[in-house]
Amino acid sequence: MSDQTVENVLDTLPPEAQTVRDFLDASMKPDPELAATFMSDDVVITFTDGQKYDHPSGTTAFNAARYKWVKKKFGQFDVAHTNGQTVVYSTGWLYGEWPDGTAFEGNRYVDRFVIENGKIIKMDVWNESAERILIRKGIKA
Residue 51 above 70 pLDDT? Predict the structure, then answer.
């Protein structure tokens, strides 16, 4: 799929996927307070380290320790409806700089969101950063 086609698809997202997109845009600024407006008050965020957070400020702090800066290049948003909830998967690639200033790109990610009543109630995050860090240290993952 060309970048132009991806952009066209991202311009016409279902409402729940748009909520996720808006949340991710705020998270990448980073603006954890704005990002929190897309989440329920009792949200559970499980991040790549298995740590659970109840506010986007936790993931912002985690990212600040792992990266000099990091952004997402969106691939697609998949939406499924089940039991009064909507599940949205966001997939794509991370790019940015490691703490030492070395650039990286092409780091795959998958984020899974559960939406209820227009708010994110659960978020699960996976990406390849740990494997890439191991490889940079000469450890074959």
Answer: yes
pLDDT at 38 over 80: yes
- How much helix, strand and coil, in percent to the nearest 5, is found in the chain? 35, 45, 25
Q: Is 23 exposed, middle or buried (0-12, 13-18, 19+ CB in 10 A)?
A: buried
- H or E element: which one contains 38? none
Model confidence over 66-112: pLDDT tens digits?
A: 999 999 999 999 999 998 899 999 999 999 999 999 999 999 999 99
Q: Are 124 and 105 in contact (CB under 8 A)?
A: no
Amino acid identity, position 46: T
pLDDT at 3 (0 to 100)? 52
Secondary structure of 54-105 in HEC code, one letter for each residue? CCHHHHHHHHHHHCCEEEEEEEEEEEEEECCEEEEEEEEEEEEECCCCCEEE
Amino acid letter, residue 134: L
